[in-house]
Each structure stands twice: as C-alpha cells, then as structure tokens.
Design goal:
- The chain has helices at 40-57, 62-78, 80-91, 95-112, 115-118, 154-165, 180-191, 206-214, 227-239, 262-274, 293-306, 326-342, 377-380, 396-405, 419-428, 464-470, and strands spanning 2-4, 6-8, 11-13, 20-25, 30-36, 122-128, 131-139, 142-146, 169-173, 199-201, 218-224, 243-247, 252-256, 284-290, 345-348, 367-370, 387-393, 408-409, 411-415, 433-436, 452-453, 456-457, 472-480.
- By secondary structure, it is α/β, with parallel strands linked by helices.
- It folds into two domains: 2-248 and 455-479, Aldehyde Dehydrogenase, Chain A, domain 1 (3-Layer(aba) Sandwich), CATH 3.40.605.10; 252-436, Aldehyde Dehydrogenase, Chain A, domain 2.
Length: 497
C-alpha cells in the first residue's frame, strides 16, 4: 500500500509516528493509499525547521521572493493537469470543477507576485520640526494553515503564497482525506527555487492540530472548516497568543425575486447547489422563493436536478461526482431522511442512485426539498452535500429578515432585474460576500474572502489586501537626527577635552 509521508525542509519526512489514516478513491469506493499522521514531536520538529529557515528568508528583498513565487506560478500552470487529476482521484469532484478550483488558487499566487508593491510602507516628512515618521510591514515568523478536504489545492493556496511572499515560513496541515495535492505543490515550490524549510507539509489529525495551536514558535494560524472546529481553533490559538483567522460553516441563501430571469436563476442554482456535490462552503443550499416565484422555480429545478449526470470525476461528461467518504455519504443521506420526518416535501430523491461500473462509489444524486421551514434542522444546519432546500416567503423584506436571522453569514445572492432591490439587498444584508445575479460570489484574488457572524472567527479575511495585513505586523518609526554634523572642517590638532 502506497504511504503518503510529510514534506519537510525540502524532502520527504517519515517522522516518528506509526499512526496512519486511509485515503480513498471516492468514485471507486476503494482505498488507494495510507497517509502518515504526525505526532506532537513530529510537528514540533517541523516548526523548528521553519523557524530556522525564517532567518534568511525574511531578510531576502521582496523582489527576490516574488521571483521565486513567479516561477512557482509557471510550474503550476505547466503541471495543472497532473494536479487536477490528483484532486479528482482523492476528493472525487469532476475534472473541470477541480481545474477551476486550481485556477482560483493560482490567481492568489499571481496576486502574491506583486508583493514588492503590496509591502510598500507610508512616509510622512516633517511630522514635527525636523522629525520624520514612516511605517513598514514586517513578517510574523512561522505561520500555519489547517485546511479542509473539499478544496485540497485552492484553500491552501489562499494562505501560503501570500504568507511566504510576505517573508514568513509556513507549515501546512492539509486534510488527511486528500493530502497528495499539498505534497505535490510543496515539491513544485522547491523546484521553483524556494529554500528548504520555508514551506512544509505535515499530515495529521487532531494531535497535529493541537501541536500547532500550542507551539510557542507558531505566530499565526489560518483555518477553513466547520464552525465548531473554527471556534475551537480560534479560542485555543488566541489563548496561546497567536494571530488567528478561522473560517467556519455556512448556510448560503439565494433569494429569487418574481421579476428575475428565472432560467438564469435556475442555471446558476444548479451549479451553485450541486457543483462539487455540494461540498463547498460557498454552495447555495437554500433558495428563498419570493411571492409567486415559488411554483415555477421548483418545477424548473426539479427537471434539471433529475437530469443531473452523476459519475466519476474522471469522466468528462459527469456533472457531479461522489462525496468524499462513505461516512459523509451516510451523514448526507441521514439529513435527507430527517427532512422528510420534519415535514419538508422531497421533490427529487437522489439517495438510491447507482453508477454503472462504480457501484461501490460514494455517490448520491441531487436532492431537492420544497416547503422547508426555518425551524427545521435541514434549514438551520450545514449539510455539505447536494441537498437544496426551497423556503417560500411573501415579500422582499421577509427574505432579507430570513437571511439576516440565520447564525451563519458566509455568502448570499439575489436574482432580480430591479436595481433598487439589488442595491438595497447589498446594503442591508448582514453577510460577508454578496452576489447580485451571481450564484457563487467568491471574491477574486485581489479582493478578500470571508464571512460574517459564525462563519468567521477573527478580524481579517483571506487573501487580497486583508491577507497581506494578516501575515504582517505594522511597525511605525519616528526619527530625528542631531544638528551640527554639517559643521566646517577643523584643521587644528585634536586634543583631549
């Protein structure tokens, strides 16, 4: 059985731990590898290597760091097909979706190439008589990222390129469910000329996470995952005096107004709800049908959900692949059963789908609920699967109130032709990322990603300008130089005075 190990200080690292975890091909439902799970001793050793590498890397001029990152960008582009196939083989999402997620990560690498400009400070001459003041942003030290299974390339690339460009060294703890992609990215970064120890990948579970949270040499923690774990990361990292950005769960609402282009809305919802089998923190999992939009919307959605092409991610004709594990498949099926018990109307039931040649795969078809109420668990909780709930409300105000009252505040969108409605929605909605006639409002790399309420613990969002601020600390210098240095030359023999 293939063993996936760590990548530390520029080479494969076995570590002292004997614990492993299984890695599956979700489409086949078969184990393909084992991944080594690091112990606390292993993690501490990795952090020490990153700490040592920080001394030289942080002193390199930003332009030199940018050149390495630019070469890294070129290597990702050159090897994009290989990386995409790694994502498909361990996560299960369809090829084009995997390729798209890699592209969104690559855009952050491109943004990081501009770090010489992004790190420019501010200068004020003569703040007082003969006194100047200026500010600079300096790296933190060793930073760490803890990332989820659903985006094994994109989410890590939201973190480490900017952190490293700012002069930090980085320890990545990817999901143990699909670790190969992170290892390959680390190898390519080394090939690009990154010095050993600057970027390290350590695989593990809770033991590795806790080791990063408590290690005194880790200055900052970035996390993406569920809200309970995000809260745990935030509380424990802060308790250990670390800077933290912890992105949690979501229950994204898409408001559909009666005046909208309904076909456009339906097409957008299909990709937003069922793309990546719903395993996205930005998935639109709730449709809020306003007024008379409900019946026609559900009718159109039902036909499209029933026609979804379900199959392995390696098949270019597949529109939706499997879920990541058998355990997660059973969890999602459990939510569908719960929705029926709670009284929601199951319009499309995808639980019994079979994919020819992949009967053991972790597949579920698209599921669609109508007449979902806000007191139901399928409405309140993040399912993280291809289950779309339709909630009906009478008017625009009721839709806004519904979205604002939910505990999560990650993303939302609205479909409408009315400019006033769109503008009011964007202004009044208490959500971090908003789309107007855009189904998945993920900001581009030079803006910043993050939600509100219980979808984000910490003060700063990921990538873009917020990412640069998170991975640097501000220093302000005020200076005054003594006068008299410019005195006339003295030709008298100096004597002791």
């Amino acid at each position: 059985m293939n063993l996936i190990e760590h990548f530390v200080n520029g080479k494969v690292f076995r570590g002292s731990s004997k614990r492993t975890s299984k890695v599956f091909n979700p489409a086949a439902g078969e184990q393909t590898s084992e991944v080594n799970l690091a112990s606390k001793v292993d993690v501490d050793a990795v952090v020490q290597k990153a700490k040592e590498a920080f001394i030289d890397w942080s002193n390199k001029p930003p332009i030199q760091r940018a050149r390495v990152i630019f070469k890294f960008k070129e290597l990702i582009e050159k090897n994009s097909d290989e990386i995409t196939k790694l994502i498909v083989s361990e996560h299960g999402k369809v090829y084009e979706d995997a390729k798209g997620s890699l592209t969104r990560g690559l855009e952050v690498v491109e943004f990081a190439c501009g770090i010489p400009n992004l790190l420019k400070g501010e200068f004020t001459e003569n703040v007082g008589t003969d006194i100047d003041s200026w500010s600079v942003r300096q790296p933190l030290g060793v930073c760490a990222g803890i990332t989820p299974f659903n985006f094994p390339a994109m989410v890590p690339m939201w973190m480490f390129p900017i952190s490293i460009a700012c002069g930090n060294t980085f320890v990545l703890k990817p999901s143990e469910k699909d670790p190969s992609c992170s290892i390959r990215l680390a190898q390519l970064f080394k090939e690009a000329g990154l010095p050993d120890g600057v970027f390290n990948v350590v695989n593990g579970d809770k033991e590795a996470v806790d080791a990063l949270l408590t290690n005194k040499d880790v200055a900052a923690i970035s996390f993406v995952g569920s809200t309970p774990i995000a809260k745990y990361i935030y509380e424990n990292a802060a308790k250990n005096e670390k800077r933290v950005q912890a992105l949690g769960g979501a229950k994204n609402h898409c408001v559909v107004m009666p005046d909208c282009d309904l076909d456009q809305a339906v097409n957008g919802l299909m990709g937003a709800a069922y793309g990546s089998a719903g395993e996205r923190c930005m998935a639109q999992s709730v449709v809020v049908a306003v007024g008379k939009a409900g019946d026609q919307l559900v009718n159109k959605l039902s036909k499209k959900v029933e026609a979804l092409k379900i199959g392995p991610g390696s098949d270019k004709n597949s529109e939706m692949g499997p879920l990541v594990t058998k355990e997660h498949l059973e969890k999602v099926k459990g939510y569908v059963e719960l929705g029926i018990k709670e009284g929601a109307k199951l319009m499309v039931d995808g639980r019994n789908i079979k994919v020819h040649g992949f009967e053991k795969g972790f597949f579920i078809g698209g599921c669609l609920f109508d007449h979902v109420e806000k007191n139901m668990r399928i409405y309140k909780e993040e399912i993280f699967g291809p289950v779309l709930s339709v909630v009906r409300v009478e008017d625009f105000k009721s839709a806004v109130d519904l979205v604002n009252e939910h505990e999560f505040g990650n993303g939302t969108s609205i479909y409408t032709r009315d400019g006033d409605v769109g503008r009011t929605f964007a202004n009044k909605i208490k959500i971090g990322m908003v789309g107007i006639n855009i189904p998945i409002p993920v900001p581009v790399a030079f803006h910043s990603f993050g939600g509100w309420k219980r979808s984000l613990f910490g003060d700063q969002h990921m990538h873009g300008p917020e990412g640069v601020r998170f991975y640097t600390k501000l220093k302000t210098i005020t200076s005054k130089w003594p006068s008299g240095i410019r005195s006339n030359p003295d030709f008298v023999m100096p004597t002791m005075k």
